[in-house]
Amino acid sequence: MSVQFEAIETRSGVIKAWTRGVPVEDAAIEQLRNVAGLPFVHSHVAAMPDVHFGRGATVGSVIPTKGAIIPAAVGVDIGCGMMAVRTSLKAAHLPDSLKATRDAIERAVPVGNGKGGDHRINPASVETQLKASGLMERLATIKAKHRKIGTHKVDGQLGTLGGGNHFIELCLDEAGAVWVMLHSGSRGTGNMIGTYFIERAREELARRVLDFHVPDKDLAFFLEGEPLFDDYVEAVGWAQDYARENREAMMMRVLGALRTTFGRFKTDKAAVNCHHNYVEQEHHFGADVWLTRKGAVSAREGELGIIPGSMGARSFIVRGKGAADSFCSCSHGAGRTMSRSKARQAFTLADHRKATDGVECRKDAGVIDETPMAYKDIDAVMAAQSDLVEVVHTLKQVVCVKG
After folding, report:
1. Catalytic residues
2. Kind of pairing between the strands at 15-17 and 45-52
3. 230-255 burial, b if ≥16 CB within 10 A, otherwise e?
4. Is residue 51's pLDDT more than 70?
5. Is 235 in contact with 154 (CB distance < 8 Å)?
6. Residue 19 dihedral angles phi and psi, to the nearest 5°
7. CA-CA distance, 294 to 75, in Å (whole number)?
8. What value does the CA radius of gyration of the chain take, rounded to a whole number of Å?
9. Tens of pLDDT along 52-97?
10. What are residue 99's phi and psi, to 5 degrees?
């Protein structure tokens, strides 16, 4: 299959965008140009079909850098990603009303931001998981070098959802099988790590004498060989590992709640657990690079990933095609068409209730910023990246838990 990207014109640098048939705001294009023009960007920047305006760099972009990392491009929701498990439950096993099922999930997993989103008393399973993971010892090493990083939320938030666009869903696939799918990251500790190092990078930028222009202070960077570079790599790696553990802890608690509700059932051994806000070392176009996926999923040939829609749209389990031009990546979702504040102004509760008809979920004013109309058309997004992934399963949610 021929590639589907379009080249976006820039004064310097190259942008390859998988955005045919998908709207992209001018501010996002300007951010892509800003990043592509940085001298340490290798080959080009790839824009996914869900691309939209973000902090410093767009959400939905893939940025390869040589000898440098931009902390704000990785963001503060470090390691945020998806996990999905297929169960042996079928649609016929589900009751007509799923309110009790949603309630059971919300009792099992703390949701939201602030104190309400923490475990009031840590479950024994969380304590055991933390001890076995080695995360606490690694965090102590990081904290010893950077005492301003807050670490007080680390134990109370393992196995918790958070707020915003994080969610837990029960979905039905094309064969009527029940899946559990969830979306979360490194929670408060990851946010504090990201915020701290973004500020440190901006301080370093103010001290640097450069022979090139940095058009946005949120594109401040660390250079390989500097102490802060190594410290950031250590800290961001910790946050990514915590995020993965967090999703696994939540999944265990959700499955436990479902077994209490529905009795015994089996799960597939091969669960999908993938980051979509992270940085790691990879090899692309003849060079070893630091690859930042800011709202993008790894889609190497044969690799499984998850592309969720919105609260009222379909989601997809996909298999990567290993497209080199995208740095073996695909979109991480549908992508927003407007800011949260604009969504709250543009849509009413009646709009939201209509868009989520048939889904057991919150239908109050607190989630209007997450209403399906605030997101791009997931079918258009999938069509724009058909050369990057193939669809393995199509999921439609019947329960959606939001923070």
Report:
1. 332
2. parallel
3. ebbbebbbbbbbbbbbbbbbbbbbbb
4. yes
5. no
6. -130, 20
7. 7
8. 21
9. 999 999 999 999 999 999 999 999 999 999 999 999 999 999 999 9
10. -60, -45
Checking if the pLDDT of 269 tops 80, the result is no
| Banded model confidence at residue 2, pLDDT cuts 50, 70, 90 | low
The predicted pLDDT at position 394 comes to: 97
Residue with tokens 């997993």: 109
Which helix (H) or strand (E) segment holds residue 94: the answer is none
233: left (phi over 0), alpha (psi -120 to 50) or beta: alpha
Q: In which residue are the tokens 């979920």 written? A: 361
For residues 278 and 240, is the Cβ–Cβ distance under 8 A? yes
Alpha-carbon gap, residue 111 to 309, rounded angstroms: 20
Q: Which of 203, 160, 58 is nearest to 403 (CA)?
A: 160
Query: What is the Cα–Cα distance from 111 to 93, expressed in whole angstroms?
Result: 26
What amino acid is encoded at 218 in this protein? D
According to DSSP, the residues that pair with 297 across neighbouring strands are: 330
- Kindly tell me the burial class for residue 75, based on how many C-beta atoms sit within 10 Å of its own C-beta (0-12, 13-18, 19 or more): buried
Q: Which two tokens stand for residue 92?
A: 């016929």
Q: Report the interhelical angle of 227-262 vs 124-133 (nearest 10°).
A: 150
Helix (H) or strand (E) holding 393: strand 389-402
Non-local CB neighbours of 115 within 8 Å, separated by 6+ positions: none
According to DSSP H, which parts of 183-333 are helical? Answer: 187-207, 227-262
Does 311 score more than 80 pLDDT? Answer: yes
Residue pair 60/276 in contact (Cβ under 8 Å)? The answer is no
Contact 77, 185 (CB under 8 A): yes
Q: Model pTM?
A: 0.96
3-state secondary structure of 367: helix
Query: What is the C-alpha to C-alpha distance for residues 251 and 248, in angstroms, rounded to an integer?
Result: 5
Answer yes or no: are the C-beta atoms of 31 and 53 closer than 8 Å: yes
> If you average pLDDT over residues 25-39, what whole number do you get?
97
